[in-house]
Structure formats: structure tokens, C-alpha cells
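Render Protein asteroid in 3D.
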Amino acid sequence: MGVQGLTTYVESNTNFLQDVRFRDSRLVIDGCSLYFRLYFNHGLDQQHGGDYDAFACLLTQFLSALAACNIQPYVLLDGGMDPSDKKFPTLRQRLQSKIKEADSLSHGRGGSVLPILVRKVFVQVLVQRGIPLIQCPAEADWDIACLARQWNCPVLTNDSDFYIFDLPAGYLPLRFFQWTNLNGKASQRYVPSRCYTTNNLCRRFGGMNRELLPLCAVLTGNDYGAPKEAETLLALIDGRALGRGGGRGRGRAPASRIEGILNWLSSFPSVAEALEEVSRLMDGEAGAGKRAQKCGLSAQLWAAMQEYNIKAQSSLAPWFSGGALAPRGKTSALAQLPECLSLAAAQGQLPPLALDAFVMQRVLLFPQVENSKLASSHCSSTAIRQAVYGILLQGSGAQPSKEAHVQMQGIRGGRGRGGRGGGGRGQQGMNEAAKAAAAQSHGFSSPVFVEEYDRLDLNLKKNQVEAIIPRNRVYLDGLSQVNAFPTINSIAGCLFTSWCTMLK
């Protein structure tokens, strides 16, 4: 998530951020923001597959700095995609952008593309250091906010949505968290930082109601988008309210659209009255014949605001206190995940790709720095992914034929340009091999497909990849009873054995 332009606005107003000496506290950390920040802001290699040793050392230094200040970190990671699909257009746009950045890096120019194993190394180091962590079923923002609110401790992240969440202990932007510059005596070391609270922002606008901040985020636009009619509403607000210097501001012209919206919202004592004014403005613009449309906009705005409505009690707090089962998420599909896989997912040992394949039957394959004229490097593992999909989705109604068999010969593919008039020899070789593998398992009563998004030349391409169902059912529920090996090793071994069986 993220609110367009909000970070720039807040950081350009020093009164919104307060200097703090952070120590002796719990700290809820947005894991994804942290590993992106650490990797990209310390000049680590992006062009040659990643510098994982340097990254592991850097993360270890960060954790040691926290320990020196008696700060107890709790790390939350994003899991799979939002099942509501509200954010999918944004994810797709970002993936297309990363394809272009990866190509730019391959030619020695600028860009930011995270090497593919950074997240894995991040989790490994946290486990080795005994740092409490959890991978959430979907996006972690809301769970991070709920946990920080319950524990009354700050959040460390780079996400501008945390300028909207009402957190009593505030939000510490990673940009201002000076963990490499510890101060204080040995027993009283602290991290110089800056802390934001919604109180500071609302005070600037005459003590406006904090419950109005989510409406500002929705109107401005976040990763979930905004209702189509919102742009019309913003034009009306700009022309009718902001031009008159409305709100509890100081009468000067707003420096930005965000400031203008906040200035306008500050004139309302409650969310209900602000939404009522939205209806009035839209009614005057559209006429009496479109009452349903303007009422619908108010309802859409209200629904979108609920993304920022955090609970007093976090469902993840029991997980960190020990003895709690892994969270199953809000969807019935994820609730059907076998307990051992649910536990592995919560521990960060099962990647989001597996969750997306299970819940959404859709997978995003993130681009890497490579020769964009050749086939995507993900093509080399298509048959492996098909086997993994088959194991995960074997209960989805598909039935294997008597001779489910995968031929791997010819999967290497050739060189050449991809995506021109049929995909080029490299890409085409991969696709034909995958089709041949799927063809050997015809006889399904209802084939199961996973929608994959991968690079083809410099474009994002959607492919329907058939899940290869194993001939002999793999009983994943039983893996949790295998005491000889850690759960994740049992799962990995199961996947490898099943794949090899299909190759015979």
C-alpha cells in the first residue's frame, strides 16, 4: 500500500516529525520494507545475481544495533496477493516497470531490481538470530498496525500508509532511523530517529478529527486505487472548497493537493458529515437523475476507508507469545491449506508464490537482470513449478491419468529473440517442452491451470500453465507427524520426490 505524494508532503514539514532517542522498547518491523531499504541503500550488487553474503552481514549488523539499544524486534512479512484482487492492477503495473528496470540494469544503466534470493536470506538470518517473525497470509500492513496498536509500540517501515494509521506510539520512517549512528553510554545506547504521529498532522489543521485521515488517503489515491468518480469530486473540492480557503487552515493557498484535501476535510467534525458533503457536491454536479451514482460513491469511499480501520486486539499477538496456531487468513481457500503448510508459511519457509498458486491459482514471476532478448530465466523451471502446482492443487478436482508422465528432454531451449512472431527459439523451446509435459498427463476429468505472469522480451505476458497432478496422491497433512526432520525439509523432500517420480 501507499498514499500518493504523502511521504513527500510529511517529510517536507518538519513539525510533523519529532526527534526521538529510541531504546528499551518493542519494535514492529515491516520486513519487506526493511530488506528493500537495506539492499538498495547500501550499494549492493544488482547486476550479477545479488551479493547475498554482504546483505546477510548488513542485516546482522542491523539486528546487533537493535540489541545494543535493548530493542526487541518483531518482523512481519507480506504473504500472498490480496484475495479481493483490488490491488492486482497495481501489482501488474509494478511488474511491468520492473521488467524495464531489469533491462536498464543489464545495460549498465540505473534501476532497482531485488535479486531473487534476498527474501530467503533475510528469513534465514532472522531465524539464525532467533528474531520473532511471521509471514502474513496476505499484505502485512493492517496486521502490523493492529499489533503495534495493541502493544503500544512504534512501527518501522517505509510505507506512507502508516501516516494514516492511528498508532499511539507512532511510526518511525526507515529513512530517519539512524541505526549506524548509535549514541549514548554503553548501558543506555539509543538509535537517533524521528517519529510521526497522527496527532502532529491533525494539530497542523486545527485539531481535525483523526478519523478523517483515511478519507484523505482514499481521495488522494493509494495502491488499491480510487473510485472512478473520485477525480470528479477532487475537481469540485479544488474549485469550490479549496479556492475559498475552506477548513481550519490559516487561510493561505494549499501547497499541494494533499494539503488542500486535508484543509477541506478539517472543516468537518465527523466522517459522516464529510461523506454527506461528498453526496451534496456530486448531486449538484450530476443532477437529480443520478442520485444512485453519488450515493454509491459515498459507499465506495466508506468501504475503502475500512482498510485503515485497525482493531484494538491483534490476531497475531498469540503467535508471538507462543503456542498459537498459524493464522489462516480471511479466505476459505487459505483455510483449506494443510496445517503443516500453514505453519511453514507463517514461519516464512513457504514462499508467497506457493500461497498465490494455492489461493488464487495465479503467480507473478519477478524479473531478474538478464538478456531480455532471450527467454525468461523462469522458463527453465516451468516443469518444476508444474509439479509443485500439481501437489498443491491435487484436491481441486483434477484427476491424473494412469500414465501421468513428464518428459524433460529438450527443455533447455535455444538462443534467439523471444516474443517475435511466436516467441523465438529460446522461449518457444521452453513453452513446447512445458506443453509436452502437460500433454503426457491428459486424461484429467478437469485440468487445473495456474495463471503465470512472466517476461516476454520487455513485456509482461500471461500464460496458462497446467498443474501436473501426481499419480499417487501426496498426503500433505501427514507431514506434520514426521518428527525426524524439520517441517520445511519434509515438505521440500516431498516435492522433490514427487517431481522425480513424475520424471520416471
